[in-house]
User: Fold these one by one.
Assistant:
Number 1:
Amino acid sequence: MSNYKITVLPGDGIGPEICREAVRVLEAVESRFKVRFGFQYGLIGGAAIEATGESYPADTHLLCQSCDAILFGAIGDPRYDNNPNATVRPEQGLLSMRSQLGLFANIRPVKVWPELVEESPLKPERIAGADLVVVRELTGGLYFGQPRELRDEDQTAVDTCLYSVDEITRITRVAFRLARQRRKKVTLVDKANVLETSRLWRRVVTVIASEYPDVELDYLFVDNAAMQLIINPSRFDVLLTENLFGDILSDEASVISGSIGLLPSASIGDGVALYEPIHGSWPEGAGKNIANPLATILSVAMMLRMSLNEPVAADAIEKAVEETIRKGVLTPDLNRQHPSGTREVGEQVAKRILKG
Ligand code: IPM
Ligand code: MG
């Protein structure tokens, strides 16, 4: 029997309800396989600000450091979005956590589920067979570079895009190692025709690529990449890019799957890793039993495979999700005619895991 301690950070908006379904699925995994999970819950984001005044409290950081993997829901609360006086913001909690845990690589797989090909606004013949992974740098670039401030009595603002050779090197290795397990192709997405940081990325990635002669490397400017993702997504295998470009392109790429509610992700570094859906907190949908839990459920499958070395259990979850999709037991984002609730989708996946 293997025992794993999981830190669950439900966060804001729909975060708590989608995490509840992912935990339900892990409990089904316990019943079927020789694994046991101990869940410890922590506060982050708006929920944490409410309770403690801080978006990523020290207690939460301790929980994150003392576990085998972290499950995170979502962050963001509209009460802070248009409030220029807000000094603490929910999103800062997520950024602090990524930075303090050293989670520099964000892995976001995107694929087409054949049953859902009609759900994508893109033409089926364009997206058929698309299967790519965005490898997004997560602790550098414009999100963290200093200085970042208002100047001239708030008449000017500055953010800084900063990358070091070391930061680029470590994420590049993640991308090439991943490519080796897939179709052996890395596309570096940058803006090297304009940005100095992008030129550094090109130089460093090109050098590292020579250590992986079996992996093909090509380059795309980010504006062109945004277009290629829509007109020819199957040209991509591993899409390697910096923080902000990765944020934008991964939302765009979710359109290929038919719903952003299907996209899981893993954030990894040198220590404990974090698993989260790529979508946000969708405050308008919170508490209504309409949020799609599948991205979070697929994130725990990634957790089992990547952090806990339980590939058989991970396969069982993915198979159960596939069957659930095939049966059409789906939330309104994917089934407008006969929608199921968040809970019903979670229960359906859990039931199918138990059945085997
Ligand atoms: C994401 C989100 C976050 C980001 C926000 C909530 C800070 O959009 O994980 O993609 O920009 O990284
Ligand atoms: Mg985003």
Number 2:
Amino acid sequence: MLRILLVLALAIGPVRAADRPNILFLFSDDHALAAISAYGGRYAEIAPTPHIDRIGQEGALFRRSFCANSICGPSRACIITGKHSHKNGYLSNDFDTFDGNQSTLPKLLQGAGYQTALIGKWHLVSEPQGFDHWHILPGQGNYYNPQFINAQGTKRHEGYCTDLITDFSLDWLKNGRDPKKPFLLMCQHKAPHRNWTPALRHIGGYKDKTLPQPANLFDNYDNRSSSLKLQQMSVAKDFSWGHDMKFRGKNEWPAHFTALGNGEYERMNGEQKKIWDAVYDPENQQFLAQMRAGKLSEKQITEWKFQRYIKDYLLTVKAVDESVGRLLEYLETSGLAKNTIVIYSADQGFYLGEHGWYDKRWMFEESLAMPFLIRWPGVVKAGGKPESMIQNIDYAPTLLEAAGLPVPARMQGKSFLPVLQGRKDKTVESVYYAYYGENTHRVAAHDGVRTATHKLMHFPTTKEWQLFDLINDPQEMKSVHADPAYASVFAFMKKEYAQKRSEYEVNDAVVPKDRSKEEWWIQRHREKVQESKKAGNPDLVFLGDSITQGWEAAGKQAFDASFGSRPTLNLGFSGDRTQHVLWRLFNGEWNGIQPKAVSLLIGTNNTGHVKQNPSETAMGVKQIIDFIRDRSPETKIILNDVFPRSANKDDEMRKLNDEVNRLCATYVDQQHVFRLDMGPQFLQADGTLSKEVMPDLLHLNAASYEKWAKALAEKLKEIGVQP
Ligand code: CA
């Protein structure tokens, strides 16, 4: 911390409150680099992005900018927490709710005197925290006449989503904020997300033009993982009749189009529909006539779909660019431009037909990449195109440093302020990526590492490795992992991958995991979420597996006698490992509570179920401690040594637990984390565990619970918490 502050002070001098830069974070959804002219891709001459381009011309454009997890919610969680998905708890859009009680960029800026606002798409399920003002779309939101939510409730607004978000943002800048304070405004568009619905003033914009298609639109997925063929995101097969392709009425060609209708069209008023129909109907009728006449080959049908898709996509970008233009203009006329950092980015890239796809998720370049353009007058040199790799987890540390604030040690991203200031060429040698899988689009879970020249991917389900040479095969058409010529590169990349996973603490014990397929488990979880909400503030929380759950059964009498007189919350779940506890905490069981103390006992199932490496189990325990410390710094944690198991002290599982305890002892600081080792009370002098203490040599009987209750009560007294 001190070092960071010192470096910062040397670099840019002390940051005075009055000088702290404003931050205008302009953000969109699914914006591919190829759809920004400044990136010079396939649509460099066509992409309607003069204002976005201008940010790069007056500032810098990062070509090697990547996300940590290529889907909407998770990428946003990475950005505001500065952490990888497994550390911020928002792994996928399927089941997760973002735990807003954790430390985030807006909260830290707000705490340091910034005015903070969030306008547009949020998509993290829980209510935004850390913003003085928020005005957001519910979930994905709509393009036409969308509803918005703010603290007062939900309201429908007539108009086009991108324009409304811009209007609301300008209104806050002009009338909503305290002009004496610096600001963070996160202006976050829905566009150009599916279903790519342009503004009425833009529809038909590329009429009669044929836009270029990618060379690998008809990729056959040879020479790569078998999982590529299983996806459901292909231009040829997976576009829907109404939602994606904008036909009306009944799906005439179910073999070519999936069934989903165009809900956006249904939201339009009569006037809007009239303008829409005048453009889309003639084109649609022409295509359908050719279809009915049997004139189109499969290839031609796919190419027609691609044209419909890419034109609509680029036209939604056009409105986003106009929005950027309006905001840049306001910064100039108001005099704010000089001291405002302007960033343009999107939650991830997108496939514009590459590999035959739309959508994202894969670690292949087009959706791994995020646009990142930044203008900061007087700091970022105009026209720069830094070679440095950056990642979305780096934004929070960078912006905190830019605001003269310390970067919390638990943030995993790395500030690239030195690159922005021209003091360094790069800050990292490689980036780590992890996609945890969702039901939608059937993309297999995978993770990997990317250097400036190569990319390694790993698919855990099929245990496949993929290696790509990004210099000689930029389209990633052939994995060279089995090519002897790449043996040393493959070995190096695997080492880099292992190193990154170790650095970011990625392993099964740390990655939050639900057991939602087990009915009793998810039911108990729901009850505990409700109990946590109602609990107000329990004095004591008991966190763990079956042994903790047992306070409600064999240990009930002992529990009631020792702790029954005060508010308590039992978060023990039979069979849980560290990863399950983490999932429960992230998903509502730790509902903003600030207990006086927590009894934590977890790990024996990591040992018992999979004989997990003790260093991994210990990392899982540490992640639980970090979780509590981040949300409730005053809570005292009694870290129970994992209880001895098995009769014999030389039993393999006993020894694994011993090793977990040895490693976890290093987390004890006698200030926030205290140790309680019941081993000596439960074991005989020679280390034997008796069935009189634990009848199944794993779980306690009533008498043993009494011993544990007594020891816990004494420990609580010792650390200043009255039991
Ligand atoms: Ca997205």
